[in-house]
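Reader question, answered in our methods column.
A reader sent in the components of a multi-part assembly and asked whether the whole thing could be modeled at once rather than chain by chain. We filled in our standard form and ran it. Here is what they sent:
COMPLEX SIZE: two components
ENTRIES:
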Amino acid sequence: MPLVLFDCDTAIPERKRHCYIKEMGEDTTQFLPSSNISTIPGTLSERGCSYCGAKLVIGGVLKDTIQMIHGPVGCAYDTWHTKRYPSDNDNFQLKYVWSTNLKENDVVFGGMRRLKASMIEAFAEMPNVKRMIVYTTCATALIGDDPKKVAAEVQAELGDVDIFVVECPGFAGVSQSKGHHEFNIGWMREKVGTWEPEITSPYTINYIGDYNIQEDSYVFQKYFEDMGIQIIAHFTGNTTYDSLRGMHRAKLNLVNCARSAGYIANELKKSYGIPRMDIDAWGFEYCQIALRKVAAYFGLDDKAEEVITREVAKWKPKYDWYKARLPGKKVAIWTGGPRLWHWTKALEDDLGMKVVAMSSKFGHQEDFEKAIARGRTGTIYIDDGNELEFFEVIEKVKPDLLLTGPRVGDLVKKLHLPYINGHAYHNGPYMGFEGAVNMARDMYNAMNSPLWRLAEEDLSGVDGYAQ
Amino acid sequence: MDMHSNAEAIFNEIQEKCLWQFFSRAWDREENIDGILTKVGEIMAKEPSTTETMADKYFYADAKVVAAELSASLPWLKDLDRDEVKAVLQSVKEMLLDITVTRSLNGELRVKNY
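And here is the structure of the entire assembly that came back:
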């Protein structure tokens, strides 16, 4: 079947090039949804802005860095605390939020003095913190503030601080994807190679595209440490500013989220000759493949088998309990982009579930090539899906469960459909062996919760619930 | 099974499982497809494989996993002799390049910068 126009989109026929249903015998050279292009006016997009991609997804994860948001206070607040990425230093990055709190007066007369004062004040209030990322926002970009000039002045005046400036206002691109790109390329250009890490192992990697969502990073970090592998930099889960400056010293770039961080792996390969190896960090079987690949690169096959044997013995009985109870359940994956292709085969091959619809907010065509190659025939593939399309797809495929974000999640809860937070998880981690068990458990619990039945009951006459 | 059917079976497995065929740019995909499938051929033919450079090690690592998965899912592979393995993998290379590079609809494949 070619690209499809949903009934709800008759007034915006441009949506047709974003929606595809795969049929037997078709491949991605025939039909590939348009993606990473501007949202069509009139569609109720679920996308985030470009600044959000740089700050909320990548930079804001750093555990030792002041995140100075140069803009109105909402830009800071709305990209703080909405994603659960903890750290092993008491969650510094989740406890504090920084903003220049731009006001009308600054828009008229310029915000650079306020920015400089805010930066100096933040360093003074936190004298043990010596690293800062400054982000422009729509307002400060439009008035032409020059945060790089201010950062250079503050660095010169204070002497012992290092500052990275991300000039990626919300309007810079079509979605948060532009923010990922700007952060990656900017960091590579300005910071990689400016710090020398302590090397403690002959086997060194950068672990790229994992953001320690509910402690994901700790899972693979343990596996790698047990194999004798040193992680030079974790881009950017539970990581430090300086470790990211030392990425040039790793011997392998291991990439999970290729969409948000493939850029820096590509650049490291181009500039330093460090190979890029892509893995799927979610999924019981994928996890074993990932460890074996890394082991084969370093000649550590025995070490990998030890870890795999230990972890499989520990988690497989629990996994098998859910595996016996999930086959045939229909799932829709409506997330950012990469989780479409990371998860579809893991859910189908490992657990026997059926992924019947996939929607990506900010994926590029590369992501759809992967998702369609891995996905089933008959499955619906959507780029930048809108709210009405989601309702129509639900009616069409009748999923038992949705893996999606809180925005769509709250919509589907009103339809009494279970959803799992596909971005920040319900009860993670979801990566690795134990993560696969956690994810299976959350999916099983969601679909079997008595709340869905109770939500349909009228409790107005029940004692204790009246009034 | 004839040569084309053999190649198609391997091609389908790789399309579903391997991320290296979908790297960001045409030149990355070409490099991976050639480098990794060449190593897969060496591993399956039990020939010595060079792993002197970091690039060689990377191709070898991904190839080792591919070879193990193909051997497990396509047991008839063990009945092919060395020349037949090399020939069928050459066909797979051409099929992968065709779908992921030559006829790909991905508009970013030839963008100069990452």
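What stands out: Chain A has a mean pLDDT of 96. The radius of gyration of chain A is 23 Å.
Send us your own complexes using the same form.
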